[in-house]
Each structure stands twice: as structure tokens, then as C-alpha cells.
């Protein structure tokens, strides 16, 4: 009677990683809980993992979600699609060859460096080889990977469009000529965008250089900085510790640029959260000659506490706090030169930063928001003075949450009119009313996706 050959140390480790990743992915799909939180909780409970373990688990986990649209379409060995564990995710059983094939594909597409683990996964998959090219530098590489997948896995459906859930294409209307570039952008790791505040960008860049942090100044905005590595301990950076460097995605920074607050103006951030855009508004006014008044509101006290902590660190005083305690306006009516409404939304614009959300959300994440968004916008508009501006923003790419809400607001509020703005990325400027409503696509500036509309009170 023959016995199977004993597993090598690398194969045992490969199987252990596969089990851990299966556990994490299963939890995320079953509980519909964000991958960041699930992973943080896992590492908190399993302190045995060193930095190399954490990196392998993290990168593979998020890679699985980046390419899930293809992985779930892989036919199993018998040609049947696997949809185990009680949900139609296409996730194979923990010890199945199908699961090891999915892991092997992610490692190949993203060209992961841990060759011994990749080899262990490939052995367990039952495949003798995996002829799949790595994700390249151009959108066309998606087509090359699709062609290779079709060649090696007959019977599976592999197109770039598969990488976005079917229901989403009904709500996210991408120009056909931009579709491949949009999908490509969603599949790339997001950069770490930051913003200089309280000092010039050149001064902050010198501090980063002294800390041996590689940084790239953006040619879009004069205070935006891209940090070249994402595995940076921010608390070890002098400029960050002193409040002179703030983490903020470039698309989020574009909202402040569209708001364009002037020196001495009064502004209200009606949905401030932890205050990223409040700090930016303060910084922009400070740069242009001085802050008049800045009030931040939110329904979450903890978020406003974090805002005050960040403002104090940056030396931005005073930013006033006025929480929403009821439906009643928490600030003066007809008072502010500018009001920013960064409304709660489906967050489809952050899908490359949170690729798991593509697959654990559904159309309800979009369709249950517009009524709330319109209500918040209506309430907040009462605080805008005659001749003042109202900015409506979301980190969504869905028309129902964006243009449709803006159009409904204008139809019900004839005292407001579209205020045409220059596109913060393309630089285009048109007198047409629609130029007051801009969708910022991820492929336009290597940033998140966002929507912004600018209105003026007559």
C-alpha cells in the first residue's frame, strides 16, 4: 500500500495561508462586513503573525476581491461552477482544488513575490502549470489576461466587464471609450495621497526628504503630495505628527478646489465626519489671506471629536463645532458664503480602495440613499446667504445619487442655479449648466471617484 509523499514545509505553510484566507473571505461574504475591519480584528486576535505573514495575507485577500469577477467564473475540474458555503460567490471549499486555483491566479496576475507559497498553491490546485500573464501597465493587459484565462479554463466567462458586478453597470454610466480604462483603474492599488497644510508644499517636501520619505508633488493642485510607498508608518513622519501633512485622496481634495473658498468667508461643512474637508477649507482660506468663520457639523459626536483633535494638531483654531441634534438647522439660516454637503452615499467611488465592497453590496446600497441625500441638501441649503454657493458632493459614481439628486434639488429650489466650474482634473470650462455637475473618474487622475455639483443662491 503506497502512502502519499509527506508535505514540504513550504506546502504546509501554503495550506495554512489558504485556510486563513478562506476563513477571512467566508466571513466577509457571509457577514457582509468590510475586509479592512475583518482583517484588523483577525490580526488583533492572532498576534503570532509577523510582518511578512501580514503582508502576504493582506495583499492576497484584497487581490482576491480585485479579481473576484473572474475568480468566481472559474469552472471546477468537472466543468461545474462552485458556489459553496451557502452563498453564490463562486468560492470553493477550503481544501478544494478550485480554491487553490483561485489563490494561484491572484498570485500570478499580481505577480506576488513569495514563490514558495505560490508553488504550494499551484501543486494543491492540481494544475501542472499556469500560463497567465501578470497585470501590466496599460488597460490592454486586461484583454491579454482574459485571452489567457479563456485558453486555459475553457467554459469560463472572462471579460474585463466581469470585474464590476452586473447590477452596477445599470447605475454607473461610463462613456464606452473610457470603460476599459475605468475597469483598469479599479484593479490597481490606490496611491497614498496627502496634502500640505499650514506650510507650503516645498517646506513639507523638505521635511519628508529629511525623514527619507519618497514623495511626488502633484501637478494638479499646489498642495497635493503622493507618497511613493503605502507601507509607511505615518506616525513616524515629522510633518504628519505636527499636523503639516494630512492624508486626503486627490479626488477628495478636488472638492475643496471646486468650493474655492475665499479669504475671510464664512463656511459651513454640514456633513463633516472626521473633518478632512473641513481642514482643507480652513487651509485654503488661510492660504488666501485668512479664515473668516468655519463651522463643522455631523450627527456623530465621535467624528467631531476626531475633527477637533486633528484641527488642534494642525494649529487650526478656531474651527467651530455644531452637531446635528435634530432635523432643525444647527447653524444660522441665510448666513454662510459657502455650504458644503458631502452626503452619505454608497461609496462606489472608493471601490478600488475597498474592492470587497463591489461584491458584498448590491443595488440597494445605491437606491436607498437618494431620498436622504436630497433631504440633507434641502435642509443645508437654508444656511446659504443670497449670492452664496452650495456644494453637493458624494464619493459615489452612481447617477441616482449624483446628477439625479442635484437635478431634483434645482427643480424644487428655483432660488438656486447651477454655477459652472472648471473641471479640477481636465481643466475644461464651459458655460453649459451641466458643467456645474462633475463626475471625477478614477482613471482621470489616479484617484478615487467622486461627484461634485456647485450651485449659487440667486
TrEMBL record:
InterPro entries: MeTrfase_RsmB-F_NOP2_cat, MeTrfase_RsmB-F_NOP2_dom, RCMT, SAM-dependent_MTases_sf. Gene3D superfamilies: Vaccinia Virus protein VP39. Residues 180-458 form the SAM-dependent MTase RsmB/NOP-type domain. Keywords: Methyltransferase, RNA-binding, S-adenosyl-L-methionine, Transferase. S-adenosyl-L-methionine binds at residues 298, 342. Pfam families: Methyltr_RsmB-F (PF01189). One of its GO terms (biological process) is methylation. The active site is at 395 (nucleophile). GO terms for molecular function: methyltransferase activity. Belongs to the class I-like SAM-binding methyltransferase superfamily. RsmB/NOP family. This is RsmB/NOP family class I SAM-dependent RNA methyltransferase. It comes from Shewanella litorisediminis.
